[in-house]
Design a protein that fits this description.
It is a single chain. This protein has 196 residues and is mainly β. Helix content is 6%, strand content 40%. It is built from 2 helices and 17 strands. A hairpin with a 2-residue loop joins strand 2 and strand 3. The longest helix is centred in the middle third of the chain and has 6 residues. The relative contact order is 0.20.
Length: 196
């Protein structure tokens, strides 16, 4: 029986370094378990679990909460982000779900305001609809825009290109670790590529 656990050693942004798309929203993943070719995702809320054969395409490094400096240095039209959406479009994507959803979106425009102690800029986004698997080109954007504040924006992340393996002198389970992750401006590049 081949079994592998994946985690990231020093994710600076969250206790749960991965997220997966479930029920129309990005949710924190506590554990990724691979056994006999099947992947099981255990969500941080302990209520849900997904088990699939083959590669699971909708998993990525957890998006990090945006900061005041992101407003001036990173956020601009054309950038993909993850937003906490209260819109009817997001709510209706999962029947009966009245909770706000973390969904991917593209920044359309930004109404800038002077930064004092906090950011009060308005960021206008188009939500992704029919997103499909991460990395696919089939994703389309809604024509409607939604205004969000910086407190409802998370910055997509991607792993460093070169994972480093655990010390080969140890005789325990091999964990795969990455030194760091970096900001990502496109949804398609945020996909977590699982290596065998």
């Amino acid at each position: 029986m081949k079994r592998k656990h994946l985690h990231q050693s020093k994710h600076p942004y969250n206790a749960h370094p991965f997220e997966a798309l479930y029920g129309g929203s990005w949710k924190s993943v506590e554990l990724i378990e691979i056994r006999d070719g099947a992947m099981t995702l255990h969500f941080a809320d302990s209520h849900h679990r997904i088990e699939e054969k083959g590669p699971f395409s909708n998993i990525r490094v957890k998006s990090r909460k945006s900061t005041l400096s992101d407003c001036t240095c990173f956020l601009r039209p054309g950038i993909d982000v993850c937003v906490l959406s209260f819109s009817e479009r997001a709510k209706s994507s999962e029947e009966g779900n009245s909770e706000p959803l973390w969904v991917d979106a593209r920044i359309n425009s930004i109404k800038r305001k002077p930064h004092e102690s906090q950011c009060s800029c308005q960021v206008f986004v188009n939500l992704y609809v029919n997103q499909g698997p991460l990395g696919s080109e089939r994703a389309t954007l809604s024509k409607e825009t939604e205004a969000v504040g910086i407190d409802r924006i998370s910055i997509l992340q991607k792993l460093d290109n070169d994972p480093c393996e655990a010390d080969n002198n140890r005789h325990e389970t091999q964990f795969y670790r990455w030194e760091f992750c970096e900001d990502c401006s496109l949804v398609q590049r945020s996909k977590l590529f699982l290596r065998s």
